[in-house]
Amino acid sequence: MIKLHYLYAAAILGVTATMFSCEKLTPQATADNEILDGPMDGLSGMQLNQFFKGDAAFSETFTATTGLGSVFVASSCISCHAGDGKGHPTTTLTRFGQTDSTGNHYLHQGGPQLQNRALPGFTPEVLPAGASFSKFTAPAVTGLGLLATVSEADLLAMTDPNDIDGDGISGTVNWIDLPLTIAANQNAITQNGKYIGRFGKKASTYNLLQQTITAYNQDMGITSTFDAKDVFSGHDLDPEVSNQTIHDVVFYLHTLKAPIQRNQNDAEVIAGKKLFIQIKCASCHKTELKSGYSPIEVLSNKSFYPYTDLLLHDMGHTLDDAYTEGSAHSYEWRTPALWGLGLSPDAQGGNYFLMHDGRANSIEAAILLHGGEGASSKSLYQNLSANEKAALIKFLESL
Prior knowledge:
This protein is an alpha+beta fold. It is 28% helix and 8% strand.
């Protein structure tokens, strides 16, 4: 229609059609490193087909007639992860009911997640009196397949719970219970019957299957064979989403491409990366990890650059919300991956909403909120010159 419109206009004005080249008429494609969406390279035709089915399901908006819960947080996956990026404060989740490792004591009152929206005729949930809670802003979902395949042995090798090396960094894993419908990986490492979590703000989720079925159930009130409990009534219901759709979404999340750094050869970006390492940000935000084996060949045995260690760290009292999950303490948070950071405003309405709850409105503000194990790096950042700070921020914006 656009091309016909221009040709028609050209004829009316007596201008030859040769003035309108295809290059001028065709919108320029957005560079791959400027968007988060898209499949990994190397997928087969069959895999691409499943990827796009998962993409469609991820974008589906639910209504009361298609299964949306009586109470819910969002009506689609994409509403919390626009363009597969970070969420906005308007879709931030509220999790509540657990103050320590003894478990959630408010499950009978709607825990662990507040469903703050409701269909007409129903009442949204409210926080129970006295319940501890925290706000969770949705993360970007790209590159998750690579993070999913980092071996548990590698995760444990990065831990140092007693800070034996004396560097002030004592990362640890979150030991979690598995739902009965989630199968552990072959040769999974356990401790007292618990498994290593790696996804979520507190690393309280085992894998992308658990992440997906929990999002359907807790975010949208949609039941599946994996989680049949209705969040409103508490009763088991027939599945409202098929197993095939669940698996398509899981495959989609596994095979979304990793964010691609921009301006890698810029001198200021290169200097900023050196400063990032110099002030020890890379102690937690590891610059390079390696994936292990995956049945999806393009994920297997790859070096990649997510800027995370997937471990829990003490982030100090300012970020202590008195809420926790699994074996994590309330002041411990999983190191978020920094890849894609510079593209966050594209999904967040043109602004930054960083940290676990979106409270930081700039990269610098996020740095200055670091306490606990991050306090030393924050202090070193504060001692940088203005030009050095600018270079470091420019590097982070390039990710």
